[in-house]
Amino acid sequence: MLQIRTLAMFFATICGLASFAAATATAQTSVADFYSGKSLNLIVGGAVGGGSDSYARLVARYISRHIPGSPSVIVQNMPGATSGKFASYLAAQATKDGSVIGTVDSSLVLAPLLSGHALPFDPSKFHYLGSANSDDYLCVVRSDAPVKSFQEALSRPLIMGTTAPGSKSHDLPRMLSNIVGAKFQIVSGYAGTLEVSLAIEKGEVQGMCGLSWSTLSAQHPDWLKRGVVRVLVQEDLEGHPELNKMGVPLAINFARTEEDRRIMELFYSQSVFGRPFVAPEGIPPDRLAALRTAFLSALHDERLLADAAKMGLDISAQPGNDIQTLVAKLYGFPPNIIERAKQSVANKPPI
User: In angstroms, how far is CA 246 from the centroid of its own chain?
Assistant: First the structure.
């Protein structure tokens, strides 16, 4: 009797696996039928030549090989409002059949929580295909600045250049001023981080925050070697291994209360998003699954990794499901934490 039951369980398992394989094959065939002979539009929510653009064009060269049906990939740029223009398009106008995907700035993911005003899109409802990397953000200062450590920045002023409100270069130093008491004198209005970098080199400002380690490595590889700047503090939950070895502190360790620490956690979770790729709400589940799989496969493609190394782009692929789960967690933070976080990037100190 035991042998009969064991055989029955064995055959049931085999049948189940066969059914799963058949269903998977059917789904792949359906996806292939849809994408075959079609174009996949990959829209960059930033300007040509920026970091998001570089990552998007790199992915575009390889992702088609990993999508059933191998669609051609067309890259377009839709800059504006720190990728808010593209986010609005994705929410209201983009076709929801799997033919449109794109990139958004990582700061946009939490924009509805932190901006203080209504926005025409809800990033928590986007489908996340994944992220090309998890970035580490930094505050850097000129080597001749009078402040030599972040501890000193809590009592001595520093002139920090920033871009527009809502960007990491603006909101992260503003938050450090209001939450941990950094004496940052913020000069805003620069068009982008490249312009802030030029201002640092010319001595117009003494430093900036919200600069990613990947951008520093790719666009200013000589800054640390020539002693142009020093890294003041890491705006991250864990820190970059190389900077940890150098003893560069984590800003979150300067939190004065547990509530302050949770506010900083909300901001610094953006580093996990890195370079997020998204699709609109409502696309068919089989195509979403195929795009997520293709995205990860492309980022593990040895040819893509070789190209990334030549371009100085850091690749540390993050799965779409993980990003989706993290976004849901952050949108579930208690209202008092979100309200204080919102106040922390305003011009006035938080209550």
Answer: 25
Three-state secondary-structure class, residue 73: strand
At residue 235 the predicted structure's pLDDT band, cuts being 50, 70 and 90, is: very high
* Total residues found in the chain within this entry: 351
Average pLDDT, the chain: 89
Alpha helix locations (H) across the chain?
Answer: 2-35, 51-60, 84-92, 111-114, 150-153, 168-179, 193-202, 213-219, 223-226, 241-245, 258-268, 270-273, 285-299, 302-311, 320-331, 335-344
Q: Which of 255, 274, 230 is nearest to 337 (CA)?
A: 255
10 Å Cβ neighbour count for 136?
Answer: 26
SS percent in the chain: helix, strand, coil, step 5: 50, 15, 35
Name the nearest CA neighbour of 315 among 66, 58, 108.
Answer: 58
* Amino acid at position 119, single letter: L
Model-wide pTM > 0.90: no
Alpha-carbon gap, residue 15 to 5, rounded angstroms: 15
